[in-house]
Amino acid sequence: MSILLVEDDKTIASGLEYSLQQDQFSTVLCHDVETAKRVLETHINQFELCLIDLSLPDGSGYEICKLVKEQSDIPVIFLTAIDDEVNVVMGLDMGADDYITKPFRIRELLSRIKSVLRRYHKQPLAKPIIEIDSVRINTLEGKVYKHSDEISVTALEYRLLLIFANHIGQILSRNQLLEQIWDVAGDFVNDNTLTVYIKRLREKLEDDPKDPRFIKTIRGLGYKVGE
């Protein structure tokens, strides 16, 4: 998932870029309005969100927001050092989705980003039948089979399996899984609970749970199903 980051303070920009990449986002960094406009003219479709500083050396973040909203339905979050109601209202009236006032904690910013993205991206509709190796998921009936034998799974185990099924071949970090389980289930799921649910799914679906081949651990990155 790619984010356009427009921030003229190079120290802040460097820290933000590092933190976003650590949270599995890819970033394109611009330090001024003109560079951001050139990037958007040719690559606007590659971005899923824009983080824009309000005060830039050659203009205002408003200009970039206006350009984005005229060409695409991409969420925009303003970074501002001015906690001023007039500026905030103006930005929101232009179509910005949220703002955050400096200085801010990176976890708060990440939370705001994910909250905005959740409003833009709904869970994809699952296919009626999903087959992954020897596992078959009947999404119309909410049933799971292994080698044609029905496997009993809990509601949250089923939801976790569907998340993997909707991202076949992709590495999903623990944070990504936790975010999506929270969205779908509406229940509190912490890191330890996620470990338990993955263990239970492996016990039910793997030929050898101690040497998992279906839900693969990608060391240091997360988990992957398929391909």
From TrEMBL:
A Pfam family recorded for this sequence: Trans_reg_C
Name a biological process GO annotation: regulation of DNA-templated transcription
Q: At what positions is 4-aspartylphosphate found?
A: 53
- Which part of the chain is the OmpR/PhoB-type domain? 127-227
- List the Gene3D superfamilies: 3.40.50.2300, 6.10.250.690, Winged helix-like DNA-binding domain superfamily/Winged helix DNA-binding domain (1.10.10.10)
CDD domains cross-referenced by the UniProt entry: REC_OmpR (cd17574), trans_reg_C (cd00383)
Q: Per UniProt, which keywords does this protein have?
A: DNA-binding, Phosphoprotein, Transcription, Transcription regulation, Two-component regulatory system
By what name is this protein known? Answer: Response regulator
Give the species. Paenibacillus silvestris
